[in-house]
């Protein structure tokens, strides 16, 4: 396995050369994206540092059980994340991947991220498969109702979920008075939410709406899985899979690394943490690029996409 030595975040020239030589001749390429891709856009990851929301493990809040138990708390968590992701901007890695998708026809991106940053970087829609849904989709939580709304950017999603602001000090200026409080911090009081003020389904008028994301124990979207299956079965070979900013612990997403390997793919991992390797480990012809995806990915893809300079944000149009 080629590994980046001494300084994390810099790509050793020999590894860069061998990776780009392989990338340039690759025609069937996959990328598996995780929360680390958006970390330098300011969005927290799920595991490790930043994986706590107040006193709650973010992974524990991402479950149907948590929603059933306390829909107000779970909506506060998701409304907060919708708000933060709307403030965030795609970073150079989102743009480089979007550009690679335009330049290499046989490149498919499988994203576990729900933050909307890849669509906002104008990643071609048909080349981007959102495994875990989107923060901006909402659907009815009633089993018998199939209400589903795409691209709902209303922030807050209902008035009761507005992020509280610090207007406690009458001597502060208007601008400071309007400062939003960081409700991810357990020391900031969380407003009580009346059940009746949570978002309701406009169709059945019975169910609560819920975020259109995939929680533990839930099936991934059928159309997404079948599109990926179709791509996988189009050919017996895959040249390369890039595993970017993910702990690769959640299935079935993580399983695509092994599926790609089984079709001959070489694996390139881009991650801040050397310990976060795919379950099958690293093979001799793999690469581990240690450091921030926002810096490393554009560097790696430069031989195909060139320098990433312009970064227009298709906010709200994704
Ligand atoms: C940086 C960086 C920087 C930081 N640069 N890097 C087979 C075996 C075992 C278990 C299962 C299995 N099949 C299914 C399961 C069960 C379960 C599962 O996988 N459990 C595991 C935990 C063991 N899977 C499911 O339940 C899935 N459904 C399913 O399988 O349905 C079929 C079924 C149903 C019913 C019965 C039986 C079968 C659904 C999984 C849904 C996951 N949902 C979440 C929440 C989405 C909504 C939301 O966002 O709130 O998805 S959980 C969470 O984890 C989120 C993420 O997409 C996902 C992956 O996390 P990710 O992105 O890897 O983040 P982190 O934090 O883990 O890692 C960040 C990485 O970045 C780290 O490595 C850092 O080092 C790195 N990093 N900064 C580069 N700047
Ligand atoms: Zn409904």
Automatic annotation (TrEMBL):
- SUPFAM superfamilies in the record: DHS-like NAD/FAD-binding domain
**Family annotation (InterPro entries):** DHS-like_NAD/FAD-binding_dom, NAD-dep_sirtuin_deacylases, Sirtuin, Sirtuin_cat_small_dom_sf, Sirtuin_class_III, Ssirtuin_cat_dom
Where along the chain is Zn(2+) bound? 140, 145, 201, 204
Entry's Gene Ontology molecular function annotations: histone deacetylase activity, NAD-dependent; metal ion binding; NAD+ binding; protein-malonyllysine demalonylase activity; protein-succinyllysine desuccinylase activity
**Any idea what this protein is called?**
DHS-like NAD/FAD-binding domain-containing protein
**Domain Deacetylase sirtuin-type stretches:** 9-307
**Pfam families attached here?**
SIR2
Q: Active site annotated at which positions?
A: 132 (proton acceptor)
Keyword NAD included in the entry's annotation: yes
- Give the highest taxon in the source lineage: Eukaryota
Q: Which GO terms describe its cellular component?
A: nucleus
Family the UniProt entry places it in: Belongs to the sirtuin family. Class I subfamily.
Organism in which the protein naturally occurs:
Lophiostoma macrostomum CBS 122681
Q: Which UniProt keywords apply?
A: Metal-binding, NAD, Transferase, Zinc
